[in-house]
Amino acid sequence: MATVKQLFDLSGRVSVVTGGATALGLQMATGLAEAGSNLVICSRKLENCEQAAHGLEKLGVQALAIACDVTKQDQVEAMKNAILAKFGRVDVLVNNAGRAWVAPAEDTPLERWQQVFDLNITAPFICAQIMGREMIKARHGKIINISSVGGLVGRSPKVYDSISYGASKGAIVNFTRDLAIKWAHHNIQVNVICPGFFVTPLLQKAFDRNGDKILAEIPMGRTGGPDDLKGIVVLLASDASNFMTGSVIPVDGGSVAW
After folding, report:
1. What CATH number should be reported for the domain whose range is 4-248?
2. Which tens digit of pLDDT belongs to each residue from 102-134?
3. pTM for this predicted structure
4. Active site includes 165?
5. Among candidate residues 122, 65, 130, 118, the one with its CA nearest the CA of residue 93
């Protein structure tokens, strides 16, 4: 029987966080590093990844920075090969990279709709497939998808007007459920976190414009903070969640509980 400390200990494991150089991705990467995991940080901008990796290494873990467009299968395959060359294993995948296009549904260009879906749902499939093949070989793995409360309910256009974002984030919720069932026999757990409103650099202007309306939709009366995703991502990456798969977990201050 393991102790609680042992269940949550990620020492020696290797976690990949897409879009992990900034904002919520970096918060989750930091939580994983604080629990002992080595990190792979990828995004399209290598400089940002290197800066994040340098900071994570100060926590006593190894960190690998990789420039990767996760919508490109060949680049994700190359990233996997680089990870195996350095660490020899992949234990955790956090599909965090994402984007939105803010516009009324009637004015959203098809090209922008497709770009949002490419990054928000096709890229997680590519990464899960390529990293998952290694997890299947190892008979162990954790895949943590990042959706949104916008993937669980419709949202007022006065707060956040992006039909492509909500639709794609809804898609990743059911992608999680279905993949969890399909890979359960491989001892791979697949779960999804649905963050509420966090004031990231990309959302600062939206909060400045509509902060009162946003806060009015959150029972706790505040937005997400700099530590609010750390605990849940460590739980889902660790042995403490070995009997959890297909779970959909809002971290939203109660906004979908109204």
Report:
1. 3.40.50.720
2. 899 999 999 999 999 999 999 999 999 999 999
3. 0.96
4. yes
5. 130
